[in-house]
Amino acid sequence: MNQKGLLTAWNDAKGFGFITPEGGGERVFAHVSTYAGRGRPDSNRKVTYSLARDDQGRPRAGRFQYAGAARIIARMAPGVWVAGAVVLVFSASLAGLFYRGYLPVSIIAAYGGVSLLLFVMYWIDKRAAQRGVQRTAEKTLHIFELCCGWPGALMAQQVFRHKTRKGSYQYVFWLAVLANLGALGWLLIAPEAMNWRQQFGFDLSKSLRPLIW
Questions:
Q1: Each residue's pLDDT tens digit, 45-66
Q2: Residues 171-175: contacts with CB within 8 Å, 24+ apart?
Q3: 159 and 142 inside one domain
Q4: Domain final position from 73, 102, 134
């Protein structure tokens, strides 16, 4: 895709339009079947495309997609935005608890560090699956998800389109998420967790219990 242009005169009902080359010249026919993004393309968008010819020698786009940042957005599944919103809300909640003195920085660092590591592990496992080589054991991924890495796993699943259609994996994944959140809640408010809070560096003069009970 070394050609650049602007998608114009797009007829979505019929599924075709034309690309006006960036440097000028004859318009290039483009059909929705050769669109490389998700969903349906829109007119007046900058695109890159490969140039081909039909049976009559007329120029047509062999394959086309949005250019620049729009290309990345167009290739993302809707689940990416949902996962991003969940991670953002959770991260904002952790930041709020830290700001009010109810959560030590070590817990936030654990979520951030393990999530980043697990995101990379998902990427490696996805490439291994594509190449047909040795994979990362599912139980290993689940252990890291349980140990504060589930936000990174949630994003990786959607970004790489990996492990999203396997029902048994998703079942264990969400159990790990619930278990992790339950453990975090217990650590924040349970009297029995006082020794653990001391080990993790909580401010023991503050407690969430008065806010909850």
A1: 888 888 888 778 788 888 888 7
A2: 172/138, 172/142, 173/142, 173/145
A3: yes
A4: 73
Whether 56 and 95 have beta carbons less than 8 Å apart is answered as no
Report the pLDDT averaged over residues 158-174.
89
Task: List pLDDT tens digits, range 83-96.
Answer: 999 999 999 999 99
Cα gap 8→68, rounded to integer Å: 17
Distance CA 92, CA 95 (A): 5
CB contact set of 190 (below 8 Å; sequence gap of 6+): none
Residues 31 and 89 in one domain: no
φ/ψ of 28, rounded to 5, equals -110, 125
* Helix (H) or strand (E) run with residue 28 in it: strand 28-31
- What DSSP character marks residue 166? -
Domain-terminating residue out of 18, 42, 73: 73
pTM of model > 0.90: no
Does residue 88 share a domain with residue 123? yes
> Is residue 166's pLDDT more than 60?
yes
Same domain flag for 175 and 162? yes
pLDDT tens for each residue of 123-149: 999 888 878 889 999 999 999 999 999
* Alpha-carbon separation of residue 79 from 17, 19, 153 (angstroms): 29, 30, 13
- The DSSP letter of residue 160 is T
